[in-house]
């Protein structure tokens, strides 16, 4: 057993099974409602109804993120379970792109399989729901997979690969500008370095032509609407979010130490190669050169992107698996095909990425074994040396599965479920219901049967100074004063910086009366959805 060597066929089967298992896990689970899900659902639902981005609703991003969720809504219906299915598909695409890149870099099959396991544990497993901070990198990864294959393989399909790379890198930019823009820089850097070595720039020109072509055919129809107002490229009323000290703070803070260590390690490996064989030897080994540059680029990207893409904290964890594979690939005398070596490395991966499953495993152990960590302030320990706030925190364990079709496979606070039931009893099925929904429960459009507000001046969501500006605030207040809405939902979130504009709430309270209040699906549970109706 310990002398057994793993065969390529066995490893290929294992790779497929691992991908299928990790991608399928969300299909068999029910999850608590998560922040920002309202946005994924709302954009996809509007497209399901036939509304078009920028014609019927504006947003500071392109619509790349909503393409796959919108398609899955068309196929399976406008339900939360459809979003889960969409994310399963997105996760599968990310694994295929990851594996493809490693194949192009000629990574040995057993190391590639270990890399896929690490990628699934660190990046796939934590993404149950679609979110643009994740989708943007998946599009980028697909684009870079095509690009690297086009650069290094130079087969008869190289032209088509470069064209596909241009499309997916544009789609990445049109999903989220910051990460997509960095992906474009990475692609151009790899192309130009290889073109300088080869003394020809045909591949760079093909890629750029493809990128520009798809940008023109996708953006030009939108210019007849307010695209240049909504799409954020740093113009007023938007903000660029770029501040040099923010970048320096994030680059040099303690939490970025692991990134700096990784970058240092890659640079040291390059210096070793140069010292042993010189620059010429490094350049001649084109696969290894591009592998090193690619990993270095993927490490610099999150070091910069965490300034503008700061939630969730694990949005950039894709780089760990790439670095792990790179390190193993540099160790020439480690026979990873040996079953005991492969098994040892597998255990090491689970040790390295133990924090996720320990968090859940600890809860299971506490429940099954009856273990509870008491906090006694008569003693000084790690848990008691400082007096913490006495506010109640929840792990969502008291949330209930909802009975609502659009919110299937989701847990909500019981009081929230009761609030939605009251709304349905009073308002569901009423004809021509006009609703201003400034809350995270965008699914109320389906449950109550109203059509979301539309128009090229209508924002997709109401985040103050992100997607909802002074113009929108003034227009909304005028509509409220004119009592154009039958029903208004407004969510108060004390811990966020005026997420929903307080001035609009003032307008609502001047012209409408509060009819109901129930908790919003948030942690901590101090946010509420207020229901307003016309004054009697």
Describe this protein's structure.
The chain is mainly α and 536 residues long. The protein is 57% helix and 6% strand. The chain contains 20 helices and 7 strands. It has helices spanning 8-24, 37-49, 64-76, 80-104, 109-124, 132-152, 158-173, 177-198, 202-219, 227-230, 244-252, 257-284, 286-305, 319-330, 339-352, 354-369, 414-427, 444-448, 470-481, 502-511, and strands spanning 31-32, 400-401, 410-412, 435-438, 487-492, 512-519, 528-534. The protein has a 4-stranded mixed beta sheet with strand order 4-5-7-6. The termini are far apart.
Q: Which characteristics define this entry?
A:
membrane; mainly alpha; single chain; 536 residues; 20 helices; Glycosyltransferase RgtA/B/C/D-like domain-containing protein; transmembrane; 7 strands; four-stranded mixed beta sheet; 57% helix; globular; transmembrane helix; three-stranded mixed beta sheet
Task: Characterize this entry briefly.
By secondary structure, the protein is mostly helical.
The total of helices stands at 20
For the CA atoms, what is the radius of gyration?
A: 26 Å
Structural class label = mainly alpha
Helix content: 55-70%
Shape: globular
Span between termini: 81 Å
SSE layout and pairing:
Elements: H1 8-24, E1 31-32, H2 37-49, H3 64-76, H4 80-104, H5 109-124, H6 132-152, H7 158-173, H8 177-198, H9 202-219, H10 227-230, H11 244-252, H12 257-284, H13 286-305, H14 319-330, H15 339-352, H16 354-369, E2 400-401, E3 410-412, H17 414-427, E4 435-438, H18 444-448, H19 470-481, E5 487-492, H20 502-511, E6 512-519, E7 528-534
Parallel strand pairs: 1-3, 4-5
Antiparallel strand pairs: 2-3, 5-7, 6-7
Helix pairs in contact: 1-4, 1-5, 2-3, 3-4, 4-5, 4-6, 5-14, 5-15, 6-7, 6-8, 7-8, 7-9, 8-13, 12-13, 13-14, 19-20
């Amino acid at each position: 057993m310990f002398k057994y060597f793993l065969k390529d066929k066995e490893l290929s089967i294992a790779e497929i099974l691992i991908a299928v298992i990790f991608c399928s896990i969300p299909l068999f689970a029910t999850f608590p409602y998560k922040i920002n899900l309202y946005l994924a659902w709302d954009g996809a639902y509007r497209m399901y109804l036939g509304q078009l981005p920028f014609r019927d609703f504006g947003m500071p991003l392109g619509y790349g993120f909503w393409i796959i969720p919108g398609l899955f809504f068309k196929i399976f219906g406008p339900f939360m379970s459809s979003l889960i299915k969409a994310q399963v598909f997105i996760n599968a695409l990310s694994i295929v792109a990851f594996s493809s890149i490693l194949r192009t870099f000629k990574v040995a099959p057993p190391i590639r399989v270990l890399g896929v396991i690490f990628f699934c544990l660190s990046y796939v497993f934590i993404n149950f729901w679609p979110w643009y901070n994740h989708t943007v990198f998946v599009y980028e990864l697909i684009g870079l997979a095509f690009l690297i294959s086009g650069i290094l393989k130079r087969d008869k399909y190289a032209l088509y690969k470069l064209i596909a790379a241009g499309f997916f890198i544009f789609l990445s930019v049109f999903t989220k500008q910051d990460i997509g823009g960095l992906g474009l820089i990475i692609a151009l850097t790899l192309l130009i370095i290889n073109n300088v070595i080869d003394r020809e720039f045909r591949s760079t020109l093909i890629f750029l032509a493809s990128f520009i072509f798809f940008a023109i055919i996708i953006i030009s129809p939108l210019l007849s609407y307010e695209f240049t107002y909504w799409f954020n490229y740093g113009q007023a009323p938007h903000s660029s979010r770029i501040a040099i000290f923010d970048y320096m703070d994030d680059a040099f803070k303690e939490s970025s130490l692991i990134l700096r260590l990784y970058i240092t390690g890659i640079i040291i490996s390059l210096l070793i190669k140069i010292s042993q064989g010189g620059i010429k030897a490094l350049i001649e080994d084109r696969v290894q050169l591009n592998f090193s540059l690619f990993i270095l680029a993927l490490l610099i990207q999150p070091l910069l992107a965490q300034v503008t893409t700061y939630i969730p904290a694990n949005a950039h964890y894709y780089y760990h698996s790439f670095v792990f594979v790179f390190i193993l690939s540099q160790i020439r005398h480690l026979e990873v095909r040996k079953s005991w070596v492969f098994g040892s490395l597998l255990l090491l991966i689970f040790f390295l990425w133990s924090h996720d499953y320990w968090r859940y495993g600890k809860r299971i152990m506490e429940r099954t074994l009856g273990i509870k960590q008491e906090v006694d302030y008569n003693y000084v320990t790690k848990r008691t040396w400082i007096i913490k706030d006495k506010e109640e925190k929840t792990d969502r364990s008291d949330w209930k599965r909802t009975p609502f079709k659009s919110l299937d496979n989701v847990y909500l606070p019981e009081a929230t479920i009761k609030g939605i039931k009251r709304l349905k009893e009073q308002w569901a099925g009423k004809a021509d219901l006009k609703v201003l929904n400034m809350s995270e429960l965008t699914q109320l459009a389906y449950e109550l049967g109203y059509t979301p507000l539309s128009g090229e001046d209508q924002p997709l969501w109401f985040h103050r100074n992100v997607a909802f500006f002074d113009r929108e605030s003034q227009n909304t207040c005028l509509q409220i004063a004119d009592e154009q809405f039958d029903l208004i939902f407004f969510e108060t979130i004390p811990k966020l910086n005026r997420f929903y504009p307080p001035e609009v709430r003032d307008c609502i309270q001047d012209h409408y009366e509060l009819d109901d209040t129930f908790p919003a699906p948030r942690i901590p549970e101090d946010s509420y959805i207020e229901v307003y109706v016309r004054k009697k």
